[in-house]
Amino acid sequence: MELPKAKFILTTSGYKKFQEELEELETKRVQVSRNIKTAKGYGDLSENFEYHEAKREQGFVEGRIMELKIILPAAHVVQPDDIPTDRIGFGSLVTLKDLEFDEEIDYAVVGPLEANVEQDRISYESPLGQALLGKKVGDEVQVKVPAGVTSYEIVAIQKYLPA
Fold first, then answer.
1. Which DSSP letter does residue 86 get?
2. Does the residue 1 lie in any domain?
3. pLDDT given for residue 41 in this prediction
């Protein structure tokens, strides 16, 4: 699967998650504005913790809204029908067998915006992601890690379709 030249590549669930986050932040924006107005009423702004905290939160909320308004219109959303199952590509859920420890682990291959190692989602740009792209069941891959080289066998390839 050839990755599109889009600036941001997302799964359908990743796109939906970012849309929901934008809606939530736009709602939160109103509350933050109220908090600033309330805090101003407490008097001297130079020593007004509530005011400074509300302004800090406003900065975070506005910054993230700006990011999402750049990401969403520029995103290429990979549809489930476009996710390969014969070879590893963007949107694949891969079962790997660690050949040194004889353990299996599942990884979803996603873009950098959706990657989260704690949730077993790796970026196709990561060393492991790049080593896996294009491989098929039965192939072995070796990945350079800080402790040396780790070898994996590809056990299964499915579509990554989170709820």
1. S
2. no
3. 81
What are the CB-based long-range contacts (under 8 Å, 24+) for 18-21?
18/68, 18/71, 18/72, 18/75, 18/113, 19/72, 21/64, 21/68
Domain that holds residue 55: 8-78
In angstroms, rounded to a whole number, what is the distance separating the alpha carbons of residues 55 and 148?
Answer: 47
Please give the model's pTM, rounded to 2 decimal places.
0.82
At 10, give phi and psi (nearest 5°): -130, 155
- Cβ–Cβ under 8 Å, residues 99 and 151: yes
Pairing of strands 8-11, 121-123: unpaired
Number of compact structural domains in the chain: 2
- End of a domain among 57, 78, 99? 78
